[in-house]
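REQUEST FORM: STRUCTURE PREDICTION
Request ID: SP-0412
Submitted by: Lab K.M.
Chain count: 1
Length (residues): 177
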Amino acid sequence: MSRIAKIPVTIAKGVTVAITEADVTVKGPVGEVKMHILPLVKVTEENGHLHFEQLDESRDANMNVGTMRALVNDMVKGCSAGFEKRLTLVGVGFRAQAQGDKLNLQLGFSHPIVHHMPAGIKVETPSQTEIVIKGADKQKVGQTAAEIRAYRAPEPYKGKGVRYANEHVVIKETKKK
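STATUS: Completed
RESULT:
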């Protein structure tokens, strides 16, 4: 059995877990996340802990049980505390403005970019050059941040573009005559 899967997942206060034969649903103060149970994995709940077992001794079952435990642990963390990604806009005239479930971006193109947020994801703009993406589903938060960054990734000569708040962009030296 996977070493990760041997450690039970502790269910946080205010979080409820519903297990069916095919799905695991986690509800909490931040939101609700539902996931299909991977094949060859059995999930059980005992005394506020979730336990994971593999149904046979194959290599695939061993991999799936470790993956399932890690994903369910992220679901419990996300529904209790939530996940957050911060983006920074670097460049003259680059601006962001949140309007409900839409994010309006001006990134130096001839037209503004409107990015629609998926269900369960909230976006805030503390300033015109900062974007904060929050949600209960870790995968959706990261995917949304990556999609926004892809509109204008940081370029290597001046570093202009959309970058993660903790991202370090290596600036290349310009050509000398």
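NOTES: Residues 83-164 form a domain with the Outer Surface Protein A; domain 3 fold (CATH 3.90.930.12).
Reviewed by: T.R.
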